[in-house]
Amino acid sequence: MKKGIIKLIFVIMIVVLIIVGKNIIDKKTFRYEETLENSLSSYMVSGNASDLDPIVELLDEYANDKDIRNGIQSYSYSFLGDWYTYLDGKFDCDRYNLNSCEVQLSEFEVLNSKLENLYSIKSEEGYSIIVTSAYNNLSSEGAKKIEGLEKIVNSPNATNPDDIEEERVQKCAVAVDCESCRDGVCTCYYLDEDRNREELTCKKDITN
Questions:
Q1: How far apart, in whole angstroms, are the C-alpha atoms of residue 97 and residue 36?
Q2: Distance of CA 116 to CAs 99, 162, 180, 197, 200, Å?
Q3: Do 190 and 200 form a contact (C-beta atoms < 8 A)?
Q4: DSSP assignment of 116-137, as one string?
Q5: What is the pTM of this model?
Q6: Structure letter (DSSP) for residue 161
Q7: What is the pLDDT of residues 34-78, one digit of tens each?
Q8: Beta-ladder partners of 197
Q9: Alpha helix ranges (H) inside 29-97
């Protein structure tokens, strides 16, 4: 009888060790990247803080595992950084493209606002989705970009590029060798700075 009890206890101990070991291994090998990507992507599009709940839950679940917690925060920072980089290269903004600068400015303002809201969200254990230094870095870079865009947008010299028709009219004004004129409409040729020849249909007051 004693031997049977000892054997049963031994079996129970093995089962417990297997379960505990499995839980430890599962935690250490947990892949959180897909959860973070889905959650952050949804939030960046919708601006709805509830989309971040899965990340907050992970921070609480792994509150006692510093490696995983740091990994979650680092991955979130990297993902958000990529979003800033994407927005920075999304538009062709300079003082000759005022419309693009205005749209980019608006999107950077929204992005920085979303970042601020994201950082303000804390888990029950007090952890944020990204650490303070990461937040300060992204927020600062966004503020610098916004400041630069505001200078362009507010500049009295900022203009929008000519549309196709405006560009054609300007070229026609200096076009040469007009021919085949009919009812004031001619085939003319425009030479650019490199002496490349472009054929245009222009309105010309041609007198014989």
A1: 36
A2: 26, 38, 64, 54, 53
A3: yes
A4: HHHHH-B-TTS-BSS-HHHHHH
A5: 0.66
A6: P
A7: 999 999 999 998 999 999 999 999 999 998 888 899 999 999 999
A8: 191
A9: 33-46, 53-61, 66-90
State both tokens at 24: 């430890």
Question: How far, in Å, are 26, 86, 109, 157, 180 from residue 103 at the CA level?
Answer: 45, 14, 10, 18, 44
**Contact (Cβ atoms closer than 8 angstroms) between residue 127 and residue 63:** yes
What element of type H or E holds 105? Answer: helix 98-120
122-148 pLDDT, tens digit each: 999 899 999 999 999 999 999 999 999
| Backbone φ and ψ of 101, nearest 5° | -65, -40
What single-letter amino acid sits at 29? T
- Cβ partners under 8 Å of residue 187, min gap 6: 178, 179, 180, 181, 199, 200, 201, 202
CA distance 55 to 129: 7
Q: The dihedral of CA 142, 45, 152, 97: what is its sign?
A: positive
Residue position matching structure tokens 């093995």: 14
